[in-house]
Amino acid sequence: MKTFAVLLLFLQIGCSSSRNFPLFEYPLDWKDADVRSKTISDYSNYISGKKIFLDPGHGGEDRRNKSRNGVVVEADVNLRVALALKEYLEKAGATVFISRDKDTTVELGYRSVLANNSGADIFISIHHNAPGKTENDYTNYTSVYYHAKDGDYEYEPFDQDIARYIQRDLSYVMGNPGGLGSFDGTYSDYNIYPGQGFSVLRKTKIPAVLIEGAFHTSRIEELRLNNESFNRIQAWGIFRGLSKYFRAGIPTIALLTDSTKYESKKLSLSFLLSDKNEINHKTVAVYFNKMEVDYSFNKNTKVLSVKLEEVAEGEYPIRIICANKNGNHAFPYHKRIVITNNARVEVRD
Ligand SMILES: [Zn+2]
Fold this sequence. Notes:
Blueprint: H1 2-19, H2 33-47, E1 51-56, H3 74-91, E2 95-98, H4 108-118, E3 122-129, E4 143-146, H5 157-174, E5 186-188, H6 199-203, E6 208-215, H7 219-224, H8 228-247, E7 252-255, E8 261-263, E9 266-274, E10 279-288, E11 291-293, E12 296-298, E13 303-308, E14 314-324, E15 333-339, E16 345-348
Parallel strand pairs: 1-2, 1-3, 3-6, 4-5
Antiparallel strand pairs: 4-6, 7-9, 8-9, 9-13, 10-11, 10-14, 12-13, 14-15, 15-16
Helix pairs in contact: 2-8, 3-8, 5-8
């Protein structure tokens, strides 16, 4: 009986101490202010000069997404994470645009308009999730969405590259897994709305991702999403992922005007593909007038050549895809080739 009482006491202590168990960890490169500044300064080598558009979801008249006890409001969590992320990015030398910096109503369609007119390089929408029909209030994971699906013309591999980097560091600092619905926690928005995707990703014409940081409906997240330190750690994970993304390099594509020719309906175009990490030639794809066409790529000179026959005068969309050896794709290259009646060839945006 005595042993049982001691055991009971031990169990009680165990239980009470488990209530004090920390709900999250402070990342080693974040918790010390000096180390944090040093990390930001190191990453500024890659982030400085970049233009980032942040979109904290919901807000103002749209505050209906709440945790089970009603205390955690998704709109507020999104805003706190976005404002902390803005601070880190600006300290690292980036220019940051934001769709709202307070609890105010911004129509969904207008968020894309703001982003498209901002001159930003990348759009990041920040949200927190709620369970679907088959999930429950313990469902919780971190996910990052990109528009369309591999194989669709609208799919930009560039978007998924950014999603991968953000997903990895964000889920790591939160101690959350990615969802099992994808291999790496990144998802096509077609998984939610087949053939359509999220309107904010479809209507935003610059490279774009949408983060679902965690489930605000989860019993665990309910305990920590209103903690400002935790929101700053979430922002830190996104900042770190984005910095590592830029560190991995982004290939550039430039038309070589001197090698461009049009004669007897034959069109020759040449492009220089450059990257400090080398181009992975297996990733190159060229679409002329929305059809995939053959090309040749010289690994030594980095020159991509496209030769087309039976091309009438007119205007044609051209799209080129390539990635470097770290797997990062070039910014979407969508131009128009215009052949005028005096056989002049121009490339226009
Ligand atoms: Zn949301």
